[in-house]
Amino acid sequence: MTNTLTQTYLKQYPFLTRQEFEIAAKSFLEQSKKSVREDGGDLWVWNEHEKLKGFGYLSRKSIIQKLKSESLNENFTFITTDDENFEQVEEELEDPSTLNIASETTEYLTVDYHIIYSTSYKVPVLYFNTYHKDGTPLTNDEIYSCLIEPSRLEDIKTAGFHGGISQQDHPTLLIPFYYLHPCETATLMKSIVDKPQSTILNSNNNNLLNGEIPIEGYIRSWLSLVGNVVGLKVGIGYFL
Amino acid sequence: MSSNPLVQFVPYSSAVEAAFWHTLSTRKIDLYKLDDTSHDILGYYSTGHTITSQHATEANISMPARLCLGTGAFDDVNAASFSRLPPFSYPSIGTIKNTNTIEDFKVLDKNALFKEITEQIWQDINSGKAVKNPYLLTRFLLITFADLKKYKYHYWFGFPALVTETSWNVAKNGEIKVISDLWESKDIERFRENYDLFRQKQSCANAGFFLVKRSNDNEIMIGGLSEFDTFFEGCDSDEKIVGFADPSSLPTNPGWPLRNLLVLLQRRWNVYKIKILCYREIPGKKDISQTCILSVEIPNTAKISDECPKGVGWEKNSQGKLGPRSADLAPLMDPTRLADTSVDLNLKLMRWRIVPNLQLEKIRETKCLLLGAGTLGCYVARCLLGWGVRHITFVDNARVSFSNPVRQPLFFFEDSLEGGKLKAQTAAENLKKVYPGSITEGHNISIPMPGHPITSESQTRSDVEKITQLVDSHDVIFLLMDSRESRWLPTLLGASMRKLVINTALGFDTYVVMRHGVKDLDSASKLTGASSSKMPEVKQLGCYFCNDIVAPTDSLKDRTLDQQCTVTRPGLSAIASAYAVELMVSVLHHEKGPVAPADTINDPGSTDISTSTPLGIIPHQIRGFLTNFNNLLIVGQAYDKCTACSDKILEEYKSNGFEFLKRVFDSPTYLEELTGLAKLHQESEAAGDFVWDEEDNEL
Ligand SMILES: [Zn+2]
């Protein structure tokens, strides 16, 4: 695939064509494999569309433990319920070789992150779904309270993002997903090259010779901006 | 017996992704239909690990030993579907039995199904299939019932582990230890690299079970389970290590897949004592430091009999009991709930971006009574929906006419056929079509009016009762009728129950949107009123009827409002309705609510940006003039001779109730006598300036 040493520049930075998106996505995967990174970049995979070539997307899963914050604890309940009145099974409750795990006290959430190309905005869009261990989704309030770390709200705002979370069908899976409004993405991507000294960029994103980010660094830079919004951020301990 | 402790295995904890339930539903509808035979499904698990928290206040996070079902669970079981599993995961084949009814689910012979899977594992061990494809050791069972109407899923996992007569013990001096306690770090690194290569060769499918040894030149070598005989040739028993991808994250206990692996080792190769490597990595971080090693042994070296051992491994539910679980997927699948989510998100966006103090919950819970389901009623209702208001009740007594649908956005041509449907009910029905989450109803009631003598006392009594009860059970009353007189009763009721009353009336190209004043009981003696120093202070704010007298604009012009309402510029109603709703929302944001004093804004260039609500100011009246495209904010104080809200009237209503109302309906001049207005008229006003219009406006 793409040699990461060469740097290709986008025809219309900050906009991507679908082809450029695929190249950018695959470069991102390759770079991830080469270095051990705090954000577990290796967990991303490229998914081809079942029927249409060139309509693939990136995805990864995260398991998170619900944030420990007083305000969250009270309104957070287990959604999993148990059924009553079922046919009994013959099983000794106490098989001595089975470790007895204390009943579920900690709640883990699964977050699916997908990076999908938007034809209308010509930029990547971050889709995500968050659910409990039985597949039941989080409510809007829980999304805002669990996924978005309160202490980071200001950072997120100064990064130019205004919390545009909406829900629509995933273009490939056709099931409802949350996504971050891509309306500001282009502006955001433009703004980071306008001020290369910006603290948003880390040393890995130094490909700014041309006043823009090469295709190979696009997803990484983009993710470092928008990923913050929904907990997909670099080097945060509670992410696995 | 041995004094060594039993090896205790960490059971699986099932994890089902929302996408799995989606796929199950689709297949049930399109493919299985009423066929409830079992099908293969593909699950996966990853190795367990603990994340050390970076914050001293937070506990470390141990991953549960999860067996997951995801998007690809129904794909055919082959190399291609294995390769689509998430990175760093291992496949596990399951059997799903989905019943057609909840009764079937309850009475299903679960023991028989569980036994079938147990026997399959036993057969695969005996036939050698499980040696070639050791992932077959992790077969599992899933029984489900999908309630597709309620989007509710009942399910129960079984992870059969074969139970041999004698249990495995921790061998002497073989207690479980992390790998770094036993191996040098360079060996750990070599092992990690070699295992990665091995895993790539196996394309993950069979990488979950493997063999480890040191070669003569001290290199760490990895082999597949099927190479058991050759791989360990010449090794001392102490040098043979069998490894498995361990979903357990507990430093003290290995995970479930080891159970059937040990049965296989014992059955195939008469292994009674073995060193086990519990492979645990942090996915994507090339970190295997949590990998553990232990030695296990079986004290009794007798062979396992040929008979299939019994199996254990039904998953416990969230209360720690043996029983199924259920998952409610309605929020993701029920279109009504999805609409809810989207509307809510949209409003949250406004809070996030512009108004952090926006009280969305308060708005959402506000119950609105719309008196009049015409042009104004329709627009107000739609605008309320936009704000997330759910409780919207319509009152009207007219039917939809042919001219209505083009101006009244809740009606359609069909509604005007055959004499026309009742407006209130039809508006409610159509509002539900716009937003199924709305809690709405329509009441066909004519509002009794002063100067419209009662023809049937029982009918009028019942109408008054209904309206009274409706005003009582709502928080905000919108007066959106097209006649002046019909506003009198609800104005009186609103004032007496201290409700927020929003009044909108239209002329041809002018409109008034106002809120009725409510007496501030907390500071009845204090002056309340305009907060702007530029306006004279006023006491309680006036109602539609007080203002009619004291309003600073031409009273003759005012009179055109209402009376010609069917002749208005078509855009006027939408404008006025929108102001009415926005006024309500702003008032809800004031700590005093309906009692809030009126703001005015006179200097747009003023540097003073402090406002009485997060949304800005709250005026008393907005008078709009389309001829000049401008608005005027006006404050009018309550009039002590008001025919609808003055103390005299309220007291009279309080003490005489319906008898008082009846007298007013029969003769409105009674009101003027009561308040002293009649006297006032005689003294200063031209006759006819303030009389109830006798003509019957269309209502
Ligand atoms: Zn009044």
Q: Give me the Rg of chain B, rounded.
A: 39 Å
Point out poorly predicted stretches of chain A: 68-81, 196-209, 234-240
CATH architecture level-2 label of chain A: 2-Layer Sandwich
Order of helices and strands of chain A: HEEHEEEHHEEHH
| Outline of chain A | elongated
The CATH class label of chain A is: Alpha Beta
Task: Give the overall shape of chain B, derived from the CA principal axes.
Answer: elongated
Helix coverage percent of chain A: 10-25%
- Going by helix content, strand content and strand pairing, the class of chain A is alpha+beta
Taking all residues together, what is the mean pLDDT of chain A? 71
Q: Assign the structural class of chain B, choosing from mainly alpha, mainly beta, alpha/beta, alpha+beta, or little secondary structure.
A: alpha/beta
Record the SSE blueprint:
The complex is a heterodimer of chains A (240) and B (699).
Chain A: H1 18-34, E1 45-47, E2 57-65, H2 70-74, E3 81-82, E4 108-118, E5 123-131, H3 140-147, H4 153-158, E6 165-169, E7 176-180, H5 185-194, H6 215-226
Antiparallel strand pairs in A: 1-2, 2-4, 4-5, 5-7, 6-7
Helix pairs in contact in A: 1-6
Chain B: E1 13-16, H1 18-32, E2 39-46, E3 50-51, E4 61-62, E5 66-69, H2 79-83, E6 89-99, H3 102-107, H4 110-127, H5 129-132, E7 140-147, E8 152-163, E9 169-170, E10 177-178, H6 179-182, H7 185-201, E11 209-214, E12 220-224, H8 228-231, E13 241-245, H9 257-269, E14 273-279, E15 292-297, E16 310-314, E17 325-328, H10 330-333, H11 335-353, H12 360-365, E18 367-371, H13 375-386, E19 391-396, H14 423-434, E20 439-444, H15 457-473, E21 476-479, H16 488-496, E22 500-506, E23 510-515, H17 544-550, H18 555-558, H19 560-563, H20 570-588, E24 621-625, E25 630-634, H21 647-656, H22 658-666, H23 669-675, H24 677-684
Parallel strand pairs in B: 1-5, 6-7, 13-14, 18-19, 18-21, 19-20, 21-22
Antiparallel strand pairs in B: 2-5, 2-6, 3-4, 7-8, 8-16, 8-17, 9-15, 10-15, 11-12, 11-13, 14-15, 22-23, 23-24, 24-25
Zinc ion binds next to helix 17 of chain B.
Protein name (chain A): Ubiquitin-like-conjugating enzyme ATG10
GO biological process, one term (chain A): protein modification by small protein conjugation
Keywords (chain A): Autophagy, Transferase, Ubl conjugation pathway
